[in-house]
Amino acid sequence: xxxxxxxxxxxxxxxxxxxxxxxxxxxxxxxxxxxxxxxxxxxxxxxxxxxxxxxxxxxxxxxxxxxxxxxxxxxxxxxxxxxxxxxxxxxxxxxxxxxxxxxxxxxxxxxxxxxxxxxxxxxxxxxxxxxxxxxxxxxxxxxxxxxxxxxxxxxxxxxxxxxxxxxxxxxxxxxxxxxxxxxxxxxxxxxxxxxxxxxxxxxxxxxxxxxxxxxxxxxxxxxxxxxxxxxxxxxxxxxxxxxxxxxxxxxxxxxxxxx
Length: 259
Known about the structure:
By secondary structure, the chain is α/β, with parallel strands linked by helices. The protein is 55% helix and 14% strand. It is built from 13 helices and 6 strands. The chain has helices at 5-15, 54-70, 87-96, 106-111, 114-117, 124-136, 148-181, 185-188, 195-203, 207-211, 215-223, 232-240, 247-258; strands spanning 20-26, 31-37, 43-51, 75-80, 100-103, 141-142. Strands 3-2-1-4-5-6 form a 6-stranded mixed beta sheet. Helix 11 (215-223) packs across helix 12. The radius of gyration is 32 Å and the shape is rod-shaped.
């Protein structure tokens, strides 16, 4: 028997009882705005703005307790949009306090803005109220935190992707500048990212720098960075293949095209 989406939403709606205080929180970087409604969608109390830090969370907790006491309610469910990474601190704090935390779809929040006042206007207080309405109607999903090992793996994978992109960008820049300033370098080194080629670009990146050196001086420069350098033949090839025109003209043209 297939499990229909409507059955799932019905379960989420049934989870909200008459003893629930339903809270919607509009997430921001530094401060959040909370609104509370009953299980029928009746607005309760006044809006609360609190900071995204421990003191702000304690203020939020006192606000919740006051509402529970004032309206004689016993359960709390707090919903929010997963805005960037700003919601994580509040969600973890709620989970540690034993308060049910849920997420709503930002796309659905945008579509439901007209439910309250028949206008698509946007404000922090209105968004928090719309989120609370969506929760009591069953448009939410529970917050589930992954195990610590899994989170560490995700962070490592994200860092790896970042380093890979930066490495590819650096390699592309090397190829670009070699093509502009010293294209003959490719005839000496087939791979411009090999150790000897990188050492060459570090020590004498311009043709005029190589023209001032002897073959022995080129090899001595390689020895500073690599134990097994390119050898005498490549050093001679490097001097033979150097450009005859002035590198300053090339650099000026290169910088002009880059700008």
